[in-house]
Amino acid sequence: MSNFIFMSNEYIKNKIKKITRSIFSEIVCIRRWIHQHPELSFEEKETSRYICSILEKNNIKYENEVAGYGVVALIECQHPESQVIGVRGDMDALPIQEKNNISYKSIYDGVMHACGHDAHTAVVLGTAIVLNKLKNNLTGTIKCIFQPAEEKLPGGASLMIKEGVLENPKVNKMFALHVFPEFPVGTVGFCSGQYMAACDELSILVKGKGGHAALPDDVINPITIGAEIILNVKHMVSQLPAIKKYILEFGDFRAYGASNVIPNEAKIEGTLRTLDEDFRHLVHRVLIEEVKKIEKKYQANCVMNIIKGYPSLYNDPELTKNSESLSRQFLDPSSVKKIDIRMASEDFSYFSQECPSCFFRLGVANNHIKDLVHTPNFNIDEKSLEIGVGLMSYLVASNLLCRTSV
User: Fold this and answer.
1) Which of 98, 150, 290, 381 does the annotation list as catalytic?
2) Is residue 173 over pLDDT 60?
3) What does the pLDDT read at residue 7?
4) Is 150 a catalytic residue?
5) Are residue 213 and residue 114 in the same domain, yes or no?
């Protein structure tokens, strides 16, 4: 008759830290290669090949060409059918010209990893390597999802889900992280419940009747109409019973006339950020109805287009609370922070809508590296890679601890 002992969190923590330290230089090399070879959304062909080469080197089985250039690695532990945990890393870059003076600077003009997706991919690859070495101490299956096109609608997450990435085997929980230059390296942040906003793109084309500005009775001024639309909808939405925070702003208003020339049309673009789906749909209705009303008032032609973007990102309270507690064990209590709701959007939200998820932030700044994401000088303190790999591995492993015979 076999005896069993419990593989404690302390044992796994120490094993993970030891393995992560031993592969740290490899993780840095992985991140630097990806940083130096950035590819835009839906164009991540070489990044995908590189990910596959690392997985092959470490004898981790995978499936590639999922929703384009997505890769899904599978690590089967003891009793693989018992529970499945997913870990996601996005891998696309941005159309930004890098200004960093570093040896691994982007080799492509106008393309840069300015949002940290190179670090995300390196962390998930590192996590896969660590957990693959520990799979005999764990029970269940780990599914590492390398996702294309986070930065561009309709979002690679939604496409991978449609292709069944959360099935066969079915994922029970999901984890992901994002670099956070607002925090110093060594610090992580969590927000339970609603964390990031749904995001919709708004565009309004106002077609009037151009002419001489001195003859107002002979023109239908699209600039006046557009200005009234902006002011009216912002006022009307501000009067709605908003349970949660929202943002309605317009950032582009173009009408090519002159001081005494009324143009034929004007174009307006804006953004709607919401945390409540019912309120989101209510604002959509208000926008459409108000544009139609003003169109009729001026006898113009107004075309309202709402491009529905990513949903809001929801962190499962129980999973997030447990992850915070585990993070304090792996790091130290002072390194784990509460963070506020952010009105930016993130397509990991699609995963969070499908299964209990925890999306947390990884501090990457130091005294010399502190530029924000989506800027040409963004970079990270690479010590954060060791912390990211170690902590992500610990969060997953702690959910998959098993008893082993002795």
Assistant:
1) 150
2) yes
3) 66
4) yes
5) no
